[in-house]
């Protein structure tokens, strides 16, 4: 089976560049229905995409721009938003324009249909996969899981530490890992992310009592201030009225208490800063999960995900 990846993963490979090097190579790719990638450079008023193939111009007719455009289940924004970005396609033929210049006819829809028929049915709850962030909404993060096919990571599944918006954790075009959370009766896939970021014990092992470390203030409550040490580990500091959610902080670790899944902190300093979200540290990167337990065995409360 072809190794289906998010759009943009293929474009800079040697094999892809070689296939775009000449018209002869493109003809060969057409004969073998080989999946290629290149950058879309224009979308006309009829929503046909022009693609820069290097050796010649390529055109993706509107209805070949994405699966579902022909029957209206996919909106035209799926095509318009690809301008200046990589697109996947197969070469379906060659034509000449009114000036006699040759161009290649391309289909992105065919690649997506192939991905939906050959790859997506192999994804079951617990499957870990590669994804690329495409856009961020208050309720979650949309990612490309293969050939431009989109899936959602709900905001509560991004990390154990709660965030106010997915932009606190991700940026558009970032490559991440995800795990299949569920597949509904229509084949729609929902993803999760927090299970790959480590258990309480794995994250707590990165710290020691008495250390002063970096953190991010995630919420300020009457009874204390929650400070994130890692995406899957947060601690509670004593109440303060001079700090705000979103600020960065330096915090002193008083104690780590596994049986209560608690980290007691003292805020040394809090300040405003515009640091970019850090690249996720994954404790699991491949395979299939059947069950994931966040809580230590000694903890009174069980926190787990069963796939």
Automatic annotation (TrEMBL):
Domain of life: Bacteria
Chain coiled-coil ranges: none
Keywords: Ribonucleoprotein, Ribosomal protein
Keyword Coiled coil: no
InterPro entries on file: NA-bd_OB-fold (IPR012340), Ribos_protein_bS1-like (IPR050437), S1_domain (IPR003029)
GO biological process: translation
GO molecular function: mRNA binding; structural constituent of ribosome
PROSITE patterns: S1 (PS50126)
S1 motif domain location: 126-194, 210-236
Family per record: Belongs to the bacterial ribosomal protein bS1 family.
PANTHER family, A to Z: 30S RIBOSOMAL PROTEIN S1, SMALL RIBOSOMAL SUBUNIT PROTEIN BS1C
UniProt name for this protein: 30S ribosomal protein S1
Organism whose genome encodes this protein: Zongyangia hominis
Lineage: Bacteria, Bacillati, Bacillota, Clostridia, Eubacteriales
